[in-house]
Amino acid sequence: MDAFFASVEQRDNPALRGKPVAVGGTKARGVVAAASYEARQYGVFSAMSSQLALRKCPHLIMVPTRFEVYQQVSRQIREIFLRYTDLVEPLSLDEAYLDVTENKFGLKSAMLIAQRIKNEIQQETRLTASAGVSFNKFLAKVASGKNKPDGLTVVLPDEAEAFVEALPIEKFYGIGDVTAAKMKQLGIHSGADLKNRSEMDLRRHFGKSGSYFYQIARAQDERPVEPNRIRKSIGSERTFGQDLESEEEMLPELQRLAEEVAYDLHRLEASGKTITLKLKYHDFTLNTRSKTFFSSVRAEEVLLDIAVELLRTPFFPTKPVRLLGITVSNLNYGKHQSGQLSFPF
User: Which GO terms describe its biological process (predicted)?
Assistant: First the structure.
């Protein structure tokens, strides 16, 4: 879907149409969950702090999230997918993989199916979607972002190699900002550069992920569409340009991480009993601290309270911190959530 949360808000409130809109956060604090295309023109994107977003776009309109509405629209879109195939693997509320090799209409053209799905989404929800069509998940995923909004991009088998070679490295699905920066330091700026590296070389620099990078540089991805795939954990982490040393520096970062994790938990209708704080120090040593509760946790403020306690227990970090992360595991799926813990921390 195109700028899903923001597009739903603009659909439901005509006063927001054509204006820069950010969903989530407040003017005082928080993280942008989604930004309209008008806001993106000013450099406002999801996962950006609200304060930074407002500095980039002072006339940005901030609206609260309405997860119940987004979930309802997501279910409506999922029903459209299921008209064509039962092999639907959701990535999030607004995105999914579909295997249409054998589809319910017997259509031979995946491009035609994608166009029909786009049309039905627009007719029934008054929202636009972008589609990527290819012979594996990696190529379809990357193609889906090529011509947003309302795009349809097809990558044929004989086009795949050239398509990947021309991709800027930051456009590769599975390569985040930190990894992209490291690749650029190694002289890897495009798919062609990545393809020139051996698997051994990539594994030396990126561990097990190096084998995945080696394969996608050659347009290879054998992963099937898994309609019943269930995530075992939900988390977020951030590596900092400058090491953090004080609690005053770390608390705002924990707040941002807690908000991102809470957002994903709501999006997936999940909650979890085990909360883990990840700390990586300036010397790259790693420390994790976990706590498991009888009842499940989903709310941002509860996640933040637990993360802060884990930061302080058994003692506050004695070395500079280069990475912080919060992960929720031991997950339960469904609308039920616990706003409070069943016993004190």
Answer: DNA repair; DNA-templated DNA replication; error-prone translesion synthesis; SOS response
